[in-house]
Specification:
By secondary structure, the protein is mainly α. The chain is 72% helix and 0% strand. It is built from 14 helices and no strands. It starts with a helix and ends in a 9-residue tail after the last helix.
């Protein structure tokens, strides 16, 4: 096992694919950064299977192969470069295997499900493909109370809902609709209209409603934290700020995601990362030190 080669591979995957996350990861201590690269690479490989063009049977077989590789990883006999990098991470940080298994179940949903009737169904999908990644990451960052787990769950859903709004056009071109059908019906906007990229007042109202829902999950995440938690959560706080900037950009364009992908430019992502890091660093410096308890 070549640990250096495995870590280098995961870093390359992250740098090439993690358009928003990579800038957040740069502010982590080296050991945590390398651990996150390994986690991201595993998630990326699984997600790419669902987004590929192979028949569903072959995609399912590939995911099953990753399940087996995950078993080998936790048994201490990883065979793939990604799991070779991941094995010391799950060992050192005691990351539950169930989180990765739940992630694979979430990816499998993309193989069979093209529509979500209700938000409750979509929320489960978001939890599996995004929240569990956050739950894995906080094991690496460290936390002192269970509220941080709630933060990870809510923030994961908020980030995934933001992705869904940004990628409406791209998903429609693949025949997928992630916006709940109950919401389409409520705003009188049809599946056919979405698949044909029809930008109407009904679509704007529908998207505004979805954006407000995403913002509510950002607020729920923030409400789970106590003073002092942010110092350990610099990376997810940077991600949250970048994704919220994406939501604002979508709103400024009147939710017309059919004209092209609305994302935050790289220089602005860097600026956001620096601002969040600076704010959290300053808060930590200004926070009064705890005084020892009197015997």
């Amino acid at each position: 096992m070549n640990a250096a080669a495995a870590l280098a591979h995961c870093r390359r995957v992250t740098k090439a694919q993690a358009k928003n996350f990579y800038y957040a990861f740069l502010f982590l201590p080296r050991a945590q950064r390398q651990a996150i690269y390994a986690v991201y690479a595993f998630c990326r490989y699984c997600d790419d299977i669902a987004d590929g063009q192979l028949p569903a049977v072959q995609q399912q077989a590939q995911l099953q192969a990753w399940r087996q590789e995950l078993d080998r990883c936790y048994a201490g006999t990883p065979g793939h470069l990604v799991t070779q990098a991941l094995h010391p991470v799950v060992t050192r940080y005691r990351i539950p295997k169930a989180y990765f298994e739940e992630l694979i179940r979430g990816v499998e949903m993309d193989l069979a499900i093209r529509r979500y009737a209700t938000f409750a169904e979509l929320e489960q999908y978001c939890y599996r493909v995004a929240s569990v990644v956050g739950l894995i990451c906080i094991e690496i960052f460290g936390y002192s109370h269970p509220g941080v787990q709630g933060y990870a769950r809510h923030l994961g859903i908020a980030l995934q809902l933001t992705n869904i709004l940004r990628d409406v056009k791209e998903d429609a071109e693949r025949g997928r609709i992630y916006l709940p059908l109950e919401d389409l019906a409520a705003f009188r906007y049809s599946e056919e209209a979405l698949l044909h990229h029809r930008y109407t007042p009904e679509f704007v109202a529908l998207m505004r409603f979805q954006a407000q829902r995403a913002l509510e999950y950002y607020r729920k995440a923030e409400a789970c934290l106590l003073a002092g938690d942010h110092a350990r959560l610099v990376a997810p706080e940077i991600m949250a700020a970048i994704y919220r900037a994406t939501l604002r950009k979508i709103a400024r364009h009147r939710y017309n995601v059919f004209q092209g992908r609305l994302s935050v430019a790289t220089p602005y992502k860097v600026l956001i990362a620096l601002r969040v890091f600076g704010r959290i660093w300053l808060q930590a410096r200004l926070r009064p030190a705890r005084t020892p308890a009197t015997p």
